[in-house]
Structure formats: structure tokens, C-alpha cells
Amino acid sequence: MTIKVLDPTSEVTKELVVSPARLRTLDGSSIGLLDISKPRGNVFLDALEELLIQAGADVKRFTKPTFTKPAPVDLRHEIASQCDAVIEALAD
Amino acid sequence: MDSDLGLFRDGYVAFVKEDCPTCLLIEPVLSRFADSGQLNAIFSQDNKNFPALNITVDDSNLRLSFQYGIETVPSLLKFEDGVEVGRIVGWLKSEWEDFCEFPDLCSESFQDFSPGCGSLSVNPDLLPSLEKKYGSGLGSRLVEFATTEDEFEKMYELGWSDGLPLVPPTSERVSRMLEGTTRSSDEILAAVPPNLVDLSIEKVAINAVMAGCKPEYLPIVLSALEAVCTDEFNMHGLLATTMPVGPVMFVNGPIRHEVGMNSGMNLLGQGNRANSTIGRAVQLTIRNVGGGKPSGVDRATHGSPAKVGLCFAEDEEGSPWSSYSQSQGFSPSQNTVTVFPGEGPRLITDQLSRSPDELARSLAMGLLSNCHPKIVLGMDAILVISPEHAARFTDAGWSKEDLNRAIIEHSIRSTDELIRGANGIAEGLPEDFAGMELPKFRPDGGLIIVFGGGGAGLFSTSIAGWLSGDKGSKYTTKEIVK
After folding, report:
1. How far, CA to CA in Å, does B281 sit from each of A8, B35, B139, B161, B298?
2. Which of A90, B132, B208, B380 is positioned for an S-S bond with B465, CB 3.0–4.6 A?
3. Among the three residues B107, B134, B161, which one is the final residue of a domain in this structure?
4. By the CB < 8 Å criterion, does A70 face chain B?
5. CB–CB of B20/B117 below 8 Å?
6. pTM, two decimal places
């Protein structure tokens, strides 16, 4: 006797998302720096910003309201529409 | 199943479709067999006029094909006294002649063999809707394990388990589970984090079966999930944090007794089916439907046994005070579940205090170590107070509110002792907090007191919280809807 059970998962099929092409150069690129609002994330991002500017990048800074929740959709859209790449500072 | 028509009582029935070369091939055979009077009906899946005989019956809705488990056409089924006694599929001349007990069913020159085709009723695109319409009424995909497979091992392999064995969620068990609620199985309860997938009552029932719940527990599981799956509770954050927190749940109201929950001795431990499986069902649903798995979105450094599912009940009858849910404005007859972002339980011992003030100071000191003694105000807590500890307060006429206030007052510390670097410890409040007096918990709801536990033991238990409020998670109480 075979046994049949009901699938406990969402049964949602995953969508394949292709990563954007890697940047060839930082010079002239728009780079977003996302601070997730954890202590000392700004220290790391300040240092990165200096290095990026030296390499000729245009740096834009963004901040999540709280590190405990996913970034709001409007913020994600803002970053995607203004930046060629984004660097997120994860932790303290 | 249509036995009143008499078609399935004594004799033969066939299932065919026109879009099957073998069915077309054997049309004259079916015609000849029909003339013999033994073939009661031919159920046609795709053309009610094929074959053009007066015993052809339209089964284009596939109800009978589904209910009789037809996998191949042609299929020929034999019945005696309303019971199926055999079936053959495809075309093998000798087999048909034996099965029909009809030696001259076709001419000698007739083709000997032709394989059948797939029945429309097992078409993967149609099967889920047929299951829902004519089967158990459930819409979830059926997963079939082979006879030689161990279903318990297969469920582990499929990644459905939290590490403990699961009860196989068969259609029968899930249907019985759904009898525990008046809500429709296809009602969407919430969008379950982290993947924010629509969560149907049916999916919760499947996971509740796997967790080991009885049907009468289901309303508690459903309401707990509704409370957990909100932006305010932030289940995504509870999973993603490196801290060891899960949705800790406790229940108030008459349903505690109806389902046999434990609010007394060992209420936070093992041994009670309802306590052990309700929280587990919530966690399995988040895992399986929401996609929240350890080492995936769940990034806990150590985790905690509370993440398997921690659920208990308040001992309202033993309590000298009104219940927690009453303090939130619910009546004693209302059933509620409170969800709290919490760690595992930890004991606070005090076997020597005899006055209420001594014990309040002592409990406050025990609670100071939640998270870290030098971190205050960011996190709430549950204090499960035992009967013997509670008696120290009620003997002196203290209300629960008096106790709550006293603990918070006695937790006040000079921030000069708490700032970073103080007492030679780097961890602590930022330096600009120096020169203040702050309590461990916010006075407006930072400490939840719940009564419960065995009659003996001068202990209480602390359940430390995670980041509270808009920046983290807001605990909440929800009425249980049956």
C-alpha cells in the first residue's frame, strides 16, 4: 500500500532572478551605501565612502528605519532606480 | 457512488476517451460486448458520443473517472454485488477474453495488443481541482510515497521537519483536523513571513497534523498565527535576528480546560500534548509555508528550545489575581492567545524572602540579567510567578499591579553603572546616557506577570524578550476564533 500525504509547503514555485552584470569600473558609477541602523555601521560606511570617492564613484547614502525589519519597498525602489550598485553594512 | 443507477452492481463498466488510439481500436469490441448485455456502461471522458452506443455515458466532468481511480484508458472494471472484483487496462486480446469470459469477443485477425493512454482524471493540471471537487475537498498537492519507502524518513528528507518526527498528514487526518474550526479550509488567514505567502486554513491544518495537534487545538493555532503574521509582531525579524527568540505563546479562557492544557506543575516543560504541539504547529507553519528555516532566513547564533514551540496556559483558577487577558480588557469567558517575542525560560530562585518588598527586590535583581545586566529598557519580559511566590504578595494584600510597579521601581539603576566601560565592562548603554536613573523595563507594559506552576517551589521564571516596540516586535493578545 502506498501512502499519500498532503504537501505542507506553500507550493509556490521559485522565480529565477538573474543578477545584474558586475560593474566594470567604479569611476563614474553611482554607488548606494545602505546603513541598516545598527551601531557603528556608519563608521564602516564612512570609510567606504572615502575610498569610493577616491575611485571616482558618486556615493549616495541610505538608511533603513530599523535593522530588525526588511527595508521598506519604497527605499528598495529608490536605491534600485538611483544606483548602479549597493553596499549594505550588516552589523555592529 | 451512483450505485443507485445499478451500473456498478453486477457486470462490467468501461472508461474510455476518444483521444486514445487504443480506445478507437477497440470500439467494435466494446460494441460486441455491449450487445451481450454484460457491459452496463461506457464512460467517455472527452466525447459523450464516443463510442456511438446507447450505453455511452458522459463523464467529461471526470467525476466517476476520478472516484474510481482510473489511471489508464481503456479500463474495464468488473462488479459483483456492488463490489469491484477486478479491472484490466489497455488492450491484450487474451486478457480481455478471459476477463470478460467471452471467447469470441473479436475476430482472430484482430490486433493482439495495444497499450492504453493516460486517463484525463490523472492529468497533473486537472488533478488538484478534481481532488478539491470530488475528493477530500482539499486543494493541496498530494505527495505519494512508494510502498517500500518509510514515510517518516521521507518527510525528513523533504525538509518538512523541525528535527522531531512528524505525523503523516493524510487527507483523512487533515479533514478531521479541519473539523476543529468552523472556518473554511480555503480562507486565507494571513501572509506568512518571511516569504509573505498567502496562508490558507488548510495549510495550517496540514502542519497542525504533522505537529501532533488534536482538532480542538486548531483554533488556538490559527489565532496565534494571525497574531504572529503582522508587521507589528515582525516574525521576519524574529527569524532573521542572531538572538535566540521565537513566538512564545500563552492561553487564557475556558479553552485551556476544553483542550486539556497544563497551567500547573511543569507547565513550561514536557508531558502535555496541547502545550507541546500548539507552539510546534505555529513554528512548522512558519517553516513550511513561510519558508523560515534555520541557516536560511533564521540566523540565530545559538537558538533556543523555545524556537521548537513554547506554549503554556495561565492558571486562572489558582491565581489570587485577575488573569492576564482580563488585564487587557477581555472577559473571563473569552479565549485568548498572547504572542510574545521571547527566549527560553530561566529560573529566578528566592527561598528566603518572607516580606513582599524583599521578594519584589529579589525578583527585580533576577530580571536585571535578561539580555545583559547593563542593557535596560529595550526589551520586555514575561515573569511566570509561582503559587508560593505569589502568596508572599497576596498575604500582604498586594495586587498584581502593585507587584509589577514594585519590580520595575526596584530595577532602577544609576546609568553611571550601566554605561559602556563602567565596572570594567565594555558592553552597556551609550556614554550619553550617563547621569540618569533608569528602570530595566518600561513602566507601560514592559513586564507581563502570568500566574502558573506547581504548588511547591519558591521560584519564578523569567522569559526574556527581544527588542520591543516599533524598532523590533510588539507582543499582542488575540481572541481565539473557533
Report:
1. 11, 58, 20, 11, 17
2. B380
3. B134
4. yes
5. yes
6. 0.82
Same domain, B334 and B197: yes
The closest of B104, B83, B85, B84 to B94, measured between CA atoms, is: B104
User: Residue A90 has which C-alpha cell?
Assistant: 550588516
Cell numbers at residue B468, please? 520591543
Residues in chain A with CB shorter than 8 Å from the CB of B170 are 3-6
Q: Side chain identity at A66, as an amino acid letter?
A: T
Residue B14 inside a domain? The answer is yes
Indicate whether B215 belongs to any domain.
yes
Q: What is the pLDDT of residue B308?
A: 96
Q: Judging by DSSP bridges, how do beta strands B246-252 and B447-451 pair with one another?
A: unpaired
Both B176 and B114 in a single domain? no
Measured between CA atoms, the residue of chain B closest to residue A37 is B471
* Residue range of the domain that includes B105: 3-134
CB-closest option in B141, B147, B197 to A2: B147
**Cα(B238)–Cα(B221) distance, integer angstroms:** 18
Residue B166 domain flag: no
CA distances (Å), B181 to each of B90, B138, B211, B356, in order? 45, 15, 17, 44
3-state secondary structure of B360: helix
The answer to whether residue B141 neighbours chain A at the CB level (below 8 Å) is: yes
In a domain, B160, yes or no: no
The pLDDT assigned to B3 comes to: 46
Percent helix, percent strand, percent coil in chain A, to nearest 5 = 25, 25, 50
Q: Which residues of chain B are under the pLDDT cut of 50?
A: 1-4
Q: Residue B122: which CATH number?
A: 3.40.30.10
Q: How far apart (Å, rounded) are the C-alpha atoms in residues B179 and B368? A: 46
Q: Do A7 and B231 touch (CB under 8 A)?
A: no
Sequence letter at residue A10: S
Which cell numbers hold the place of B136?
477530500
Does the interface ipTM go beyond 0.95?
Answer: no
**One domain, residues B179 and B309:** yes
What's the grid cell of residue B440?
530595566
Three-state secondary structure call for residue B178 = helix
Angle between helices B201-211 and B273-288 (to 10 degrees): 130
**Greatest distance between any 2 Cα atoms in chain A:** 70
